[in-house]
Write a structure and sequence with these properties.
Mean pLDDT: 88
CATH architecture: 2-Layer Sandwich
Oligomer: single chain
Radius of gyration: 12 Å
Shape: globular
Largest sheet: 5 strands, mixed
Order of helices and strands: EHHHEEEEH
CATH topology: YaeB-like fold
């Protein structure tokens, strides 16, 4: 079984996570640990159009937008389903430098 390393974009930790209700935050963290550490390609659905190359993990009404890069999973955005797609996910360019 392949193990993936999950990394959060700095702005996810700075802006997305602190704004979440603690119960929702815990639910999302549990889903990330159970699904993305082992099978990110199995649990997350690919996005299309301008978000092609990214995937989404559904956690109730919340979405975790991420990209698989080798053995790493980069979480680029976490937000409510009604707003998460309005603001483009953060680019990996700023993280990879």
């Amino acid at each position: 079984m392949t193990s993936f390393q999950v990394r959060y974009h700095p702005l996810v930790a700075e802006k997305d996570l602190p704004g979440l209700d603690p119960a929702v935050r815990k639910k999302i963290q549990r889903a990330v640990e159970r699904r993305l550490f082992t099978h990110p390609e199995k649990y997350g659905l690919p996005l299309r159009h301008t978000l092609k190359g990214l995937r989404k993990l559904r956690v109730g009404d919340w979405r975790v937008i991420y990209r698989i890069s080798g053995s790493e999973v980069w979480i680029l955005r976490i937000g409510h389903r009604q707003e998460v797609y309005r603001h483009p996910p953060r680019s990996l360019q700023t993280v990879m430098k």
